[in-house]
Amino acid sequence: MSNLTLSYLQIDLAWEDSQANRQAIEEQILALDSSDIVVLPEMFLTGFTMSPETCAEPVDGDNIQWLIDLASRSGKALAGSLSVSVAGEYRNRFLFITPDGRVAKYDKRHLFTMGDEPNHYTAGSERLIIRYKGWRIMPLICYDLRFPVWSRNCNEYDLLICVANWPAARRLAWRSLLQARAIENLAYVIGVNRIGFDGNGLDYAGDSQVISYDGELLIDTEPCLATVESVSLNLDSLKDFRSRFPAAADRDHFSIDGMTRRSVEF
Questions:
Q1: Active-site residue list
Q2: pLDDT for 112-160, tens place per residue?
Q3: Does the structure show a pLDDT above 70 at 201?
Q4: What is the 3-state secondary structure (H, E, C) of the chain?
Q5: 3-246+255-265, which class in CATH?
């Protein structure tokens, strides 16, 4: 399909309280009008916790089953990251769940050293492309946004989704990098960030955005505001722009050591 309707929740998160976050998120998703995909922030059930031993969700746990059920009841694909427990390790894992219960996963590649994330979580090594409703979608998680080689688009995706807990102290970097990723990759970009304060006393302004393939801001969400936004993206418009401005044909060629690629089609 040419058009894809996305909604996202720019919300405050109850610190390490999955039940409170589940209730708030469920109410807002079920109240939404028609939408193909709903995007939630990074670690949307706990906040950016470094206590996975008490907060991480088993891959077959209640919270993930709740997400699968919510996608079914709402008729919308759901996307966002959770702290999960996998074979004795902890991962900051992006999940994409379709209304019919299919699940794609991406583990955060770049762990945030300044927040002690590498001492609590294991990094992923696989780049994921999700094929959904005729679109090719690549997920990123927060700090991944700072590393353009990882998200380099060799005609592999049309939409980049970045979910985050990106502190307000670095708002300029967040906003600038989202726009840069759209322009350099000739792709739509949606960045969804939380608001409020977390258990570490960090402040989050949100600044969630939807950016067109030419760098135009389609939605620039008011900072510090709890809100739900929706946008319709057009694939034909993107393809037309790429054909008229084929900058990707002039890219340099190189590879990333240790990286694997995976494509999931729904």
A1: 42, 108, 142
A2: 999 999 999 999 999 999 999 999 999 999 999 999 999 999 999 999 9
A3: yes
A4: CCEEEEEEEECECCCCCHHHHHHHHHHHHHCCCCCCEEECCCCCCCCCCCCHHHHCEECCCHHHHHHHHHHHHHCCEEEEEEEEEECCEEEEEEEEECCCCCEEEEECCCCCHHHCHHHCCCCCCEEEEEEECCEEEEEEEHHHHHCCCCCCCCCCCCEEEEEECCCHHHHHHHHHHHHHHHHHHCCEEEEEECEEECCCCCEEECCCEEECCCCCEEEECCCCCCEEEEEEEEHHHHHHHHHHCCHHHHCCCCCCCCCEEEEEEC
A5: alpha beta
